[in-house]
Amino acid sequence: MAMALHGLSAVERACERATLAQLDVVGQGRMRDGRRCFLVPSSADEAEPGRLHVVEMHHTRHPHCDCSRPVCDHVGAVLMALVAEASERQRVAELVEAALTSEIPSPDFLELDAEKAARDWQNDRRDADRWELIEAGNW
Ligand SMILES: [Zn+2]
């Protein structure tokens, strides 16, 4: 239990630092084996400001950044982006649910990109085990 709390606070600290440094994900894609990866620039007070770091997601362990520091700011920026992504998916799910139970869909629902929503759903399933890992604080 203590380990999990310790891990969790390391993650929280990384997210905090990323927010303070205004680090943001500037690109993303997938590795050949389907894992997601993200590009995050170095902050102004790092050795090489603006240098892009590659953060790779793993299914069995925590995200890996090529700067090789444990739970670095770049990983923090990626986790913040994933949290924002998850809350957007939650919003979409609520709009869909509301549309299913009402005769008049809300304008927000009509603006949804159905193809993108379907793609996101596929990605969700692929990333589900990663979320379990993060939530378990298994760093
Ligand atoms: Zn890093």
Description:
The protein has 139 residues and is α+β, with helices and mostly antiparallel strands. The chain has one domain. The chain has helices spanning 2-20, 73-101, 107-110, 114-135; strands spanning 27-30, 36-41, 52-56, 64-65. The protein has a 4-stranded antiparallel sheet with strand order 1-2-3-4, covered by helices on one side. A hairpin with a 5-residue loop joins strand 1 and strand 2 (36-41). Helix 1 crosses helix 2 (73-101). It is elongated, with a radius of gyration of 17 Å. Mean pLDDT is 82; it is low at 1-5. Residues 53, 65, 67, 69, 72, 74 line the site of zinc ion. Zinc ion is lined by residues 53, 65, 67, 69, 72, 74.
